[in-house]
Write a structure and sequence with these properties.
The protein is of the alpha+beta class. The protein has a domain of about 80 residues: 2-Layer Sandwich (Alpha-Beta Plaits), CATH 3.30.70. The protein is built from eleven helices and 14 strands. The strands form three sheets. It has an eight-stranded antiparallel β-barrel with strand order 2-4-3-12-9-11-10-5. A two-stranded antiparallel sheet has the order 1-8. Strands 6-7 form a two-stranded antiparallel sheet. A hairpin with a 2-residue loop joins strand 12 and strand 13. Helix 1 packs across helix 3 and helix 8 crosses helix 9. The two termini are about 20 Å apart.
Amino acid sequence: MDQTDRRIVQCLLQDGRASFRTVAQVAGVSEQTAARRYRALVADGALRVRALPGHLGTRDQTWFVRVQCRPDAADALADALAAREDTAYVSVTSGGSEIVCQTRSDPTRPHGSVLHRLPRTAKVLGFHAYAVLHMHLGTDAKWRAFDEPLTPADIALLHRRDGSPVPREPRSGTEAVLGEADAPLLAALARDGRTSVADLARATGWSKARASARLEELRRGQALHLAVDLVYARFGFHATAYLWLTVGPGQLHATGEALSRHPGTTFAAAVTGSANLLVTVTCRTMDDLYAYVTDTVGTLSAVTRVDVVPVLHRLKQAGTRIHQGRLTP
């Protein structure tokens, strides 16, 4: 991957639906080149943009589950978890003896969930489930660990459409709730988060103006989340880990906010349990991961304990399967 590819990816991490015209401006190439490079990354299985229900748009509860199992059973069990529709991130960790997955459950229909089935699975030796209490999803909470990051001016350009700033804060009201009428819109965006407004209009039977307005409402209200899937190793990042932190309750929010703004952080959330802050981090090398733990986490006085769980390999990412180093929709 060359510098142009990396800049295109950084643009999409800021706004997965940024126009190729804007991406081209930031990347310093023609609009045709930006579109061609993007399609090549998608065809090569290195990149995918898709839309998922946001945390404000669904009644489902998000969980992270740590599953202890025999090392000889981990891959098969992880593959079975990755095949489920209600899981997002599935990784084999701790040298092959543990699986970490993100799942969701409908409180009104608990019996078909992962949490219900795991205790009945013979290969499972034990598991711990952590409910997500709060996700740190501010505008600065984006993974941006590339050596040549976008400038503030580049980011400002990506956050403007038609010359006007795009509101970034959540908005209250019924527009922030996904309804049955939104199902065709969500299905189209789940296949390709960059589906054109014209194609969204055809998929929903709406006018282009209505499709565009509804998409914007759902994004503003955080009922819809654009996920940008990357095979990080293809871009030179080979050290991914889950960090389970124990933080004093009075400093939990400030600590989560601080870590979410670090360039190497891919996710940060307050969770239930004694380890009450979960952070995922992706670095180039284990030395960089060590520096993150010692120089970034280690300087936070509120953190009293950290459990570093390195990812051996990932089978699913934001709902997209990974096979032989490629994203496979």
